[in-house]
């Protein structure tokens, strides 16, 4: 990566001159005339082949002046305020530094006086609570949250209506059972998760810390710590609250912390205590003061405050505060005062959890549920209208009819009975129809979807092919609600550093004093005496080996001949923020030097300097120790322009601007010693992964801060760009030129698409992409495009390109690009995934996390495809399964004078979707596979099935409804006609319908299962057996009307003939249609499945299988 950051980084706190001895060499004096701003220029992994690419200019550049000029020009031209402009971050930081804290916006903290602090302001205690419920609030709050689902409210209303005497169709307990079961299962799951959170909170709150109480340090539980108290933390201990540093074990006030619990970063970071409090010992010297700081906020990288102590006012910034969850490393102890506690700490304010998301499939499913609701209303309307007509026709006979009897002769006098009038009866029949047909809306579907997603997540996490051995990390699924969205991804937005690359910088070459040393042969560093240092009879050796150039190594050891080489590597070893940590080994006399720092660039440079004999041994804020070719040198860091720096660093207003002014004054009259070449290699499998994603029809966008030439080179190395692509480059400096470039590019892209489409038709091409256009755009152009009317043109152009490469973009612009796509194409709600090689904070905030970029291919093309196929089929099957049962009830109502009596027992109606048929669909939704992993990876175009919505769409929904209608007709009328002349009672034929429908829907499911396992067999056939057992048990109970009915019915051969005839007759149309479609109009999935059956594509040999082109589905 191209880096223009200076190697000489001023310390946030420069010690006073009286703190430093003057009898030691001055580091800055010998380097003041030659300390450079050394760019770390890298060339991407040269081992990766670049296929079909034209000759490229040499990317590695050793002159950073042009880059700096370009950056300056960008900043000067961005005068128009933009939300996603390149100046956003810098402007925001400057405005914060210039803002003085008002009394209204500040909190006042009395140091070492928690009583006075909290009595007046009532700050939060340090007890945390991540649990959502308590014993008292669990029941009402959990129910309130569950009833946010409209379907639950629907079933609650149904259960309430069934309690009314006029509308009672089922038993009161039976009507409540389905909803109660679903609520109970969800409540148990939520209770278990919340119990685990409470257990974690209890452990956290009861941890111990050392707190100053009555001028003595005492052990105190974390939950009892209050704002204003002074706390002492020892090495390797965790910070219990956000605290301002007062003093440390280091005489210069530096402390090293690890923020792995906060943002996942394992590198050490430095924090500093102010000089005014550094010399004070809290348990001996009475410390009093007043801290005025900003109110609690979520910004973990910012802190604005000032402190009044000893009648002096000093400023406090991010380098003076340690946040809750950090660990003290390489420092014996630190002392600080609590400023934010408990729920007000920055860590807890950021612990709001991932936002709730809903998959596209579920959103579409809700639309279908609305259609099913309308269908339900239509059925109920038909029943009520027909009932009204029947009541009119037989109004003179209602006095003696059993269900609509108007006259009551039980008391000897004629009276109206069980009849509410023609209008009310029609209304009551409508409501009773809703109760009888209620399972048209599948309440069990929600629970089934949650269980299936959990099962899918389990197999994704356990997939060994997505396990990263280097970081010992498995795939992480943080958002279960969008598993199926992984099968419909259209865009992939990727950063470069740490996402496509390893983020492990390696020193490759250098140019020193105008001499290029990049062409020499390098050898791996050996275990020679020159690469280690002797300290107190201990051998200190750098932990990481670096390749060295023999000529450069010889010059580094020579005298006058290698003076410039000597100065160059001395600057590399000295001018950085690296902290050397000594690590013990199995050998008693050997120790390893582990260089820790926030920047991997600095780590690479320091390891390189050590390989050439300049070994950094010790660093404090006041001095450093370097072993130069076996001789130890101690260098003191002296302050430049001491008074100006102290004035700037303690300023309350405009601190950042003043510090920049001092830095510009210091960094003058410098000579360039040389330039270093650092390589950040591509991760293993990145080129192949990007090529597979492009073949799958996924538009890959790479957003990087590199300059355009470097970004294009990376594009070729990673196979993002190919020689066959037509590149459209937009690199403009005004809004007008951007507009013209976009318009010209749109015209060109349309012509290319026309030519490409004609070629595809002529050649019969089935490529995943309809265009081979790559858009390359820089951050300067985006300044004038984002948040303007040009956004629409950019989206139109980008949608016609298979690849988009954005270079020189700021972080805010990256967010703006994603927001643009989301705004323009609302069908796609972004799924966030993080790669383990990038900043861990991004990983912790993601929906899915993985160790390597290449794992994105099996995640999307394999698991994403499976998840989408399973969930899409499961939703349609649930609609069919419930609708066929409801339609059987509907046909029966038409033959019973619309009285809404049911031959099927109420308990069978209740258990149908809860017990009889629920388990098989869950098992199939977790385990079934339409294609094997090998096929999906070999033919990435198969991923287009999800993008084209082949598994779940409106056409399939209506075909399912038509198939359901036919199957319900067969299931109802075949037994009806078979027993038309018999004396069979309603309970007996109801048992026949119950068993027939359960067998039918399970056979239907079995026809569609592709990968059979013993669990699948057990669930499908076991459900049929379980249904038979339940029917027998129900009919064996004397309190039910169908007592012993199944035993009489099963003795006849007609009963078994009906069961077989229903399954065969209902399945014939479906079987014929499937056979016709698969034979004459097979999909890509069906072709690949057939190929799998013939021995892993052996029949096809090396030939390609023609695939359907991937087009966007029509917008609705």
Automatic annotation (TrEMBL):
GO annotation, biological process: phospholipid translocation
Region (Disordered): 1-22
Catalyses which reaction(s): ATP + H2O + phospholipidSide 1 = ADP + phosphate + phospholipidSide 2
Protein name: Phospholipid-transporting ATPase
Start and end residues of each P-type ATPase A domain: 207-271
Amino-acid positions noted as binding Mg(2+) in the UniProt annotation, renumbered to this chain: 495, 497
Binding site for ATP: 495-497, 602, 704-706, 808, 814
InterPro entries: ATPase_P-typ_P_site, ATPase_P-typ_TM_dom_sf, ATPase_P-typ_transduc_dom_A_sf, ATPase_P-type_domA, HAD-like_sf, HAD_sf, P-type_ATPase_IV, P-type_ATPase_N
Domain P-type ATPase N-terminal: start-end pairs: 109-175
Record GO cellular component, one term: plasma membrane
Molecular function terms from GO: ATP binding; ATP hydrolysis activity; ATPase-coupled intramembrane lipid transporter activity; magnesium ion binding
Keyword Hydrolase in annotation: no
Recorded family membership: Belongs to the cation transport ATPase (P-type) (TC 3.A.3) family. Type IV subfamily.
Membrane-crossing residue ranges in chain numbering: 174-192, 369-391, 426-447, 879-904, 910-927, 956-980, 992-1012, 1024-1047, 1053-1073
UniProt-annotated catalytic positions: 495 (4-aspartylphosphate intermediate)
EC number: 7.6.2.1
Membrane topology: Multi-pass membrane protein
Compartmental location: Endomembrane system; Membrane
Keyword vocabulary terms for this entry: ATP-binding, Magnesium, Membrane, Metal-binding, Nucleotide-binding, Translocase, Transmembrane, Transmembrane helix
Organism: Actinidia rufa
